[in-house]
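--- STAGE predict ---
source: upstream dedup step, 1 unique chain passed
mode: sequence only
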Amino acid sequence: MRPASPSGSWPNLYIVGAVKSGTTSLYAYLKQHPDIFFPEMKEPHYFVHPAPPPDRAHLFPYIAAEQDYLALYRDHSSYRYRGDASPSYLWSSRAAHEIRERSPDARILVILRDPVQRAHAQYLMDFNEGVTDLPFLEALKTDWEAMEKGWGISQLYVELGLYHEQIQRYQQLFSPERVKIVFLESLKRDPKGVLESIAAFLDVSPGPCSRMDYQVAHNHYAAPRGEWARRLASHPLSRNIGEHYFPRAWGEYIWRKLFLQKKRKPPLDPEARNFLVGIYRPEISRLEGLLGRPLPELRISWEDRAREQELRILRSGA
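--- STAGE serialize ---
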């Protein structure tokens, strides 16, 4: 075990995931609380220790060196909480154990969504950014059957939605009282109520939750303006320029305004849905047993009515 750094230098609040489940919104809201600090780099992914191959390294920004990671929090020790919002940490066993080693008294925030919708949202992001050209079902099966797995190595479309073991791991490492689970549907329906419940979990004043800006949509779906936008988004040069030569907020603004356009989200392929539901059905049942309550929030796209609606959209060609 490495020697611990000076007390207070490590974050003590972690939004650990899940990927494409509302972590950006939680990050943006909690940044507005005067007792909570988050750095501008939302996702340092430090504890997952990514090891992408050279031809994919530009697609996975992360911080590798301890001194660079701790520099994100330098001069912010006066805050009650210092946070890291890296959604890779929920999936990574190594990350969970290293967070426990570095910050044994940390609070853990988890936000979940229907894992089928989650996988589809991740795929759409990857397709729009030129990471994959495959249809959804083919991308799912190719990644699921890949021999090499890991953050930055494969997309983990299925694995990132296997919530039961991931939640159980954090509860065992930190105790259930230090792990709070919220749901994307609840955050969309009642963001103020969810943030007030998080304030109670963190034992900070709920007052600032009434003054937070909940109007801005974070990471809402938009489609690329053309094939040129997809190719430019995945090119190492444009990625490096966006990552190193512009403030992050500028890069996000340019991407949203110049490269993307408002468009209806593509419907979920029914065959891909069935493939994922077959994997996730027993998984969500185990999670319900762990948490002691039904979780209809995680089966939204599984209902027959939803399937029929998606089929109508596909048949209409809309």
